[in-house]
Structure formats: structure tokens, C-alpha cells
Amino acid sequence: MPQTVRIALDAMGGDFGPKVTIAGAASALERRPNSRFLLIGDEPAIRAELERHPRLAERADVRHSSVSIRMDDKPSQALRYGRRVSSMWLAIDAVKKGDADVAVSAGNTGALMAMAKICLHTMARVDRPALACLWPTLRGQSVVLDVGASMGANASHLVDLAIMGAAMARVMLGVERPTVGLLNVGAEEIKGIEEVKAASTMLRDLALPGFDYRGFVEGDGIGQGAVDVVVTEGFTGNIALKTAEGTAAQITAYVKEAMGGTLIAKLGYLLALGAFRQLRAKMDTRATNGGVFLGLQGIVIKSHGGADSVGFARAVEIGHEVAGSDLLNRIRDTVALAHSLEGQDGAVSTSPPREAAQ
């Protein structure tokens, strides 16, 4: 890991802008003191927030941009007015120019992916980036991808996702040989759409080094921690992610309602307060906030747009961890090996991914 990790922030991204991004960066700095920040966005607004965080002000430079990407714009719209001038673009460009080791944004996901792909470019033989996240499970955490970078995937792209997810698991989970599964409607080999079945056959035949392919995983296997890496295409992955977040919020509301219903229930809550705090911590989605764009020639982290400063700080810390790793070289080397083996086997990919990021 470099002595100092340089982090470029799109300070205007997300639902709350500098109020959250600057406070989040200040919290991350307390836990990652070898960080240095490049804060990009409306300078007066950023400096007003920095007055509340003098330690961060000492470890940060400010770069002005008067253009912010709106959360509801299509990627093509965002590119028309934000390319080369917006706070989002300039954060990514700082990575390209070597002014930063990682860029972090809570802004529009589709715009972020489009700008990152144009500015940084994808790795050789990687069709498109993927968005990977850490997912809390009964065994600890798993890596799940793609959770929304693009819709649709052919077999070859799913193999690339498996390779990239395994590399991230080695870095983020510390598992030297992670287990990998393909998300499917059943565990049996005869089930599922043709692209997923073809990807399963390729992964078994290639027997790539660095991970252990375990076959299909059903939806309930994600939370159980059936494998270290769950692979799916972005449309399904994003639905799964949003469903899990909604379910966590639903259960939290049920528990809160039940514990406040009667005097006995309130007393029981007080007696079990420690256990409820543990439960709340495990279900707190802020603890795993921060998706990693994989397959690019640089590191870009996507925070949830509605994250508060606690959640945004976690996204910054994930960026710090990834920037200090050898993730890009691990992905690059294994993707090259996989495609060389595909060529030897004469494997042919089926229909290509269909659409750009949402």
C-alpha cells in the first residue's frame, strides 16, 4: 500500500452534496489517517463545510467545478453537459492523470459508469465494467456482481465477472482461493437461461486458477453465504440488491413496532438491548456501502446516492482499501489467461450484453 492514498471526491454527488461528502471524508480520515483528498465541486460550498472539519482541511485540496450531474439524467444527457467540466468527470480524470489513486462519487450511477468508461477505458478484453458490492451474509460477507452497471450478459461476460469478482474477494475478504457461484433459478445444471448454462460450462472447462467454481446458487444462497462470490448480470443483480435493502428496512420497522407496543414489550426491549444493537449493526446497510467498478483502467467507487455521512465514509474507506491493493493487475492477468484458454478451446460467446448502464 502506498504511504499516502490520494482520494478524489465528487463532492457534489448524491442527494445531499457537500454536507454529506465532506463530513464522510472527515470520518474516513480519522480511521485512515494516511489519506489525502482532492475535493471537487462548488468551492464556496466545500470550504464552508471544511470549516467544521479542520483536520480534513489540512489534508485536502479543493478544485472548483460549477457543473454537477443531476441524479435523474440519462448517461447521454450527463455526458453532453458534464464531460470534461463536471465534478464527477474531474474526479475520474484525476485518477487518469495520476493526481489520485481512486475516485469516489455518490452521483448518478449510469452517468458515473459512462464517464468512467470513456475517461479511463476498460481493460483489454473486458467488454464493459461491472459494479461489485460487499454483501453481508450469515458467514460474514460475500462479493456480489454485477449490481447495476449494465443489463444483459453473454457467457463470456459472465466468465469475466467471475474473474473480476474473485480478484475483489481476495483483496477485500482476504480469501486466497474464493468460491464462486452463478446466480440461477435452481441448482440443477438443466435449469436457467442458455447464457448462464453456457457460462457454467465454460467455468468448469476452463478451471481457472485463483478461484473455485461451485456451480449455480439460488437467491436464498446469497444471504446464507453459499459462496464467496455471486455472479449475475446487472438487471437481476440490481433487483436483488434493492430487494435485500428493502427487506432489511422492513424487518427493522417490524421490530421497532413490536418492541414499542406494550409496557412488557418495552421492558423486554430494554433487557435485550445489547442483542438488538448487534442485530441493528448487522442489518445496517451503511456498513457495506460502496460499490467498486471493476474492469476499468483505474479505480472508481460508487456510493449510494442517499447515503448519510456514515455510509459515505464507508465508501471512501473501501476506495482506500482497493487503492492500496494489487486488484487491477490481478484482474488484468486472469482475464488475459481466460481468453487465451477460450481461444484454445474454440469457445464462442453467445448474444452480447444489450444495453448501457441504467
Automatic annotation (TrEMBL):
Q: Subunit composition?
A: Homodimer. Probably interacts with PlsY.
Q: Which GO terms describe its cellular component?
A: cytoplasm
Q: Main location per UniProt? A: cytoplasm
- What GO biological process terms are annotated to this protein in UniProt? fatty acid biosynthetic process; phospholipid biosynthetic process
SUPFAM superfamilies with a match to the protein in the record? Isocitrate/Isopropylmalate dehydrogenase-like (SSF53659)
State the species of origin. Methylocystis hirsuta
Query: What EC designation does it have?
Result: 2.3.1.274
Which pathway does the protein contribute to?
A: Lipid metabolism; phospholipid metabolism
Question: What does the record give as the reaction this protein catalyses?
Answer: a fatty acyl-[ACP] + phosphate = an acyl phosphate + holo-[ACP]
According to its UniProt entry, the function of this protein is described as: Catalyzes the reversible formation of acyl-phosphate (acyl-PO(4)) from acyl-[acyl-carrier-protein] (acyl-ACP). This enzyme utilizes acyl-ACP as fatty acyl donor, but not acyl-CoA.
Q: What span is annotated as the signal peptide, if there is one?
A: none
Where found?
Cytoplasm
User: Which family would the database say this protein is a member of?
Assistant: Belongs to the PlsX family.
Classification from the root reads:
Bacteria, Pseudomonadati, Pseudomonadota, Alphaproteobacteria, Hyphomicrobiales
Q: What Pfam families has UniProt attached to this entry?
A: FA_synthesis (PF02504)
Instruction: Supply the alphabetized keyword list.
Output: Acyltransferase, Cytoplasm, Lipid biosynthesis, Lipid metabolism, Phospholipid biosynthesis, Phospholipid metabolism, Transferase
Q: What is this protein called?
A: Phosphate acyltransferase
Output one GO MF annotation. Answer: phosphate:acyl-[acyl carrier protein] acyltransferase activity
